[in-house]
Structures are given as structure tokens and as C-alpha cells.
């Protein structure tokens, strides 16, 4: 049975990997621009090099089970990305891929997301508010888990909500002072700049959603509002603003 | 014996640190460097670090039989040595941690929380002692944090 699910999901996973590689390539200059402001200006080039290698590798792994494919993507990124992005984008996939041995289900995708976030936090020794990809991943993973496990929403809707949360996480990195990585050497000068790693992480999530949309049923026009918005005036204002942006 | 690996973003810095450490007269220590990214540019490469760890541990060590003629006298010789890593900047730490996970040999590998140059010197000297352990090498490397250069 689990072989069936690997068989069935493999083309979708390969499609998603290609979509992510495309997006990273097309955003290369933008990512480099963000990284030149507060880093060493190599994020776009590094990730592009990594994902080009992944793309070259795809043919060789296209008959593997899902977890093996994801693991191979991780290994390829580790060997080709360079800098901190190797362990943070590749090493985490290597670890989290262990959750996908029975393919991608609502349950295993939550486990994968949690394992990924845990590994990123552990490896980078970063937490929310440090102006890193953790600021993108934490709201995304928490929202995804809650949407699946508590609200019992369809995975596609949960993913859409997660991407929406991730987007706000990226925006949240702008006014923060960097606490980790090369950007932290800039101290206060890092304030006012969007974190490149947080940004590329959002791009990856957006592509996963875009591919999921063509294969899964569910609501994707999620509203970016807190559940208890009516309780305080301030958050109601925020909700209105966000609604306006969306329409 | 304990092996030592020096990891730097710069291949030349890593090699230079090794040159300085070797000059301290600790040529007995297996001191291996891993500097630069995959293309030899500024960065660190987990695969290269993993290879350096393996080499520093004495796995497939061709020199061992030649240089350590006393190997048979010591029951621990011929086994795989523990390794201490000295690193420079942040992503070197991450890639070193990843490399430790990638290496499948059965030994203890630790990263010293120490300045890379001074720590490497201390570690190299301590690691050449027959009584050296991972703990003693780490402690020696981390002593370098306390060094005051100007009175």
C-alpha cells in the first residue's frame, strides 16, 4: 500500500522540486540584492547553484520512494549550496525526510514540517525574532499543524494558511535587529532590511502551495485574520487592513 | 591520540593556521585542515570537513604504520581516534555539526568553543600528549579564550 502512495505522489513531488528550483532561479537577483544589504551577497547564487544541481540529479532519483527523493535533494543541496545554507536548507531536508517513509499524508506532512523547523532552530541556534528563516517557518509550521490537527481542515487549506502566516513572518523580519549569522555583525544597521533566508523560505513554501493547488481539493483563499479579532480594537484594525489588501 | 581538524572559511587561513601549529613542534598530532567551499572560494564544505574528520581519526591512515612504529605496543593504536574541531565563523560551526552527523565512523568528535588560531595551537600541543583525551584537548583549546594579548 505504501508503495502505491510513493508511486502516485512521486510525479507531484518531482513537479514541486522543479517548481522550487524555477522560482529560486528567477528570484536569484532579488535574493542576492537582499543579501548584499545585510549579508555577503551570495544567497541567490548559492541557492541557485544548489537547486540547479538538484535539477540535474532528478533524473537519477525519479524512481525512488518519496523520502529517498527528498533526502537526495537534501544531500545535493549540502554538497553544492555552500555557506550556512547547505546545512539549513539541505541538512534539514535530510533529517525531515525520515518522516515521509509512508509518503505524504496530512499526518506525515505535519511531522515533516515540525522536524524541519526543529532542525533549523537547532542547527542555527535561532529562535523567533532573531531575523532568520525561523521567523518564516515558525508561524507557517504552527499554523499548518493547528489547521490540520485542531481545525481538521483539508491539507491544501492548511498549507494556504501556512503560507499566509509565513508571508507575515517575512514582513516581521524587516524591523528586527539581526541576532544570527553574518547580518548580526551589522548590529543596528540590519534593522529595516528583509531577511534573505526568511524570504527564500517563503518562496519555497509558495511553490509547494502552487503545486499542491493543482493536485488537491480545498479552500486556498484564506483570510489573514486572527480568530479573536473582535476582542480588541487594535487587532480588528489589523484585520481590516489585511482584508483590504487581499481584496 | 586525538586528531585535530582546523576549519576556516578561507583555505589559505586554514592552511596557515596549520603551518603555525606545526611549527610549535607538534608534528606527532594528526592535524588536518578543511578550508573553503566546494569551489575553493570563501566558505565551508561539510563533505570536506567530514573527510578531514575521517582523516584526523586515522581511518585508512597509510602513515600510521610508518610513523607510529610503536603502534603495536599500545592497545588503543590501530583503533579510530577521537577528533576535536576548531572552527572560525558561524556557518563553519553549522557545517561542522552537519559533517559530524555525516561521518559514520565510531568515534567521539567535538567542536571546541575557542578562537580558531590560538585554540588550534593549544589543541595541537595537547593532542600530541599520550594522555590526551577529547576532554583534555577541548579544555586546552578553550583555555585560549582567556588569553590576554596586551597587559
TrEMBL record, chain B:
Q: Where is the composition biased (Basic and acidic residues)?
A: 60-70
Q: Any one cellular component term from GO for this entry?
A: membrane
Domain PTS EIIA type-4 intervals: 1-148
Q: Which UniProt keywords apply?
A: Pyruvate, Transferase
Task: Cite the residue spans of the region called Disordered.
Answer: 56-77
Against SUPFAM superfamilies, the record matches this protein to: PTS system fructose IIA component-like
GO molecular-function terms, A-Z: phosphoenolpyruvate-glycerone phosphotransferase activity
| KW DNA-binding (keyword) present | no
Pfam families reported for this sequence: EIIA-man
Q: Which GO biological process entries does UniProt record here?
A: glycerol catabolic process; phosphoenolpyruvate-dependent sugar phosphotransferase system
Q: Could you tell me which PANTHER family the record lists for this protein?
A: PEP-DEPENDENT DIHYDROXYACETONE KINASE, PHOSPHORYL DONOR SUBUNIT DHAM (PTHR38594:SF1)
Q: What name goes with this protein? A: Probable phosphoenolpyruvate-protein phosphoryltransferase
The coding gene here is dhaM
Amino acid at each position: 500500500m505504501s508503495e502505491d502512495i510513493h508511486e502516485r505522489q512521486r510525479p507531484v513531488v518531482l513537479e514541486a522540486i522543479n517548481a522550487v528550483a524555477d522560482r529560486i532561479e528567477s528570484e536569484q537577483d532579488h535574493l542576492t540584492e537582499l543579501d548584499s544589504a545585510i549579508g555577503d551577497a551570495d544567497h541567490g547564487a548559492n541557492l541557485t547553484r544548489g537547486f540547479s544541481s538538484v535539477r540535474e540529479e532528478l533524473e537519477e532519483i525519479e524512481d525512488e520512494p518519496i523520502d529517498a527523493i527528498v533526502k537526495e535533494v537534501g544531500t545535493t543541496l549540502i554538497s553544492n549550496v555552500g555557506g550556512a545554507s547547505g546545512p539549513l536548507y539541505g541538512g534539514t531536508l535530510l533529517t525531515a525526510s525520515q518522516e515521509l517513509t509512508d509518503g505524504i499524508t496530512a499526518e506525515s506532512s505535519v511531522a515533516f514540517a515540525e522536524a524541519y523547523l526543529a532542525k533549523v532552530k537547532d542547527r542555527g541556534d535561532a529562535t523567533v525574532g532573531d531575523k532568520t528563516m525561523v521567523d518564516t517557518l515558525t508561524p507557517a509550521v504552527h499554523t499548518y499543524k493547528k489547521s490540520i490537527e485542531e481545525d481538521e481542515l483539508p491539507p491544501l487549506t492548511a498549507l494556504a494558511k501556512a503560507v499566509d502566516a509565513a508571508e507575515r513572518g517575512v514582513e516581521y523580519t524587516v524591523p528586527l535587529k539581526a541576532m544570527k549569522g553574518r547580518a548580526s555583525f551589522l548590529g543596528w544597521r540590519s534593522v529595516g532590511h528583509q531577511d534573505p533566508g526568511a524570504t527564500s523560505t517563503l518562496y519555497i513554501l509558495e511553490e509547494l502551495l502552487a503545486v499542491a493547488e493543482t493536485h488537491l481539493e480545498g479552500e486556498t483563499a484564506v483570510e489573514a485574520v486572527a480568530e479573536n479579532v473582535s476582542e480588541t480594537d487594535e487587532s480588528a484594525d489589523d484585520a481590516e487592513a489585511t482584508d483590504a489588501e487581499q481584496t | 591520540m586525538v586528531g585535530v581538524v582546523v576549519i576556516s572559511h578561507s583555505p589559505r587561513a586554514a592552511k596557515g593556521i596549520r603551518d603555525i601549529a606545526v611549527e610549535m613542534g607538534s608534528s606527532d598530532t594528526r592535524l588536518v585542515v578543511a578550508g573553503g567551499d566546494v569551489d575553493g572560494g570563501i566558505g565551508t564544505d561539510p563533505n570536506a570537513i567530514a573527510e578531514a574528520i575521517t582523516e584526523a581519526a586515522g581511518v585508512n591512515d597509510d602513515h600510521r604504520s610508518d610513523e607510529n612504529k610503536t603502534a603495536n605496543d599500545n592497545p588503543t593504536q590501530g583503533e579510530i581516534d577521537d577528533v576535536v574541531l576548531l572552527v572560525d565563523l558561524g556557518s563553519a560551526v553549522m557545517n561542522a555539526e552537519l559533517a559530524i552527523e555525516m561521518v559514520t565512523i565510531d568515534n567521539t568528535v567535538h567542536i571546541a568553543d575557542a578562537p580558531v588560531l590560538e585554540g588550534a595551537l593549544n589543541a595541537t600541543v595537547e593532542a600530541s600528549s599520550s594522555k590526551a583525551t577529547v576532554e583534555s584537548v577541548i579544555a586546552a583549546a578553550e583555555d585560549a579564550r582567556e588569553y590576554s594579548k596586551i597587559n
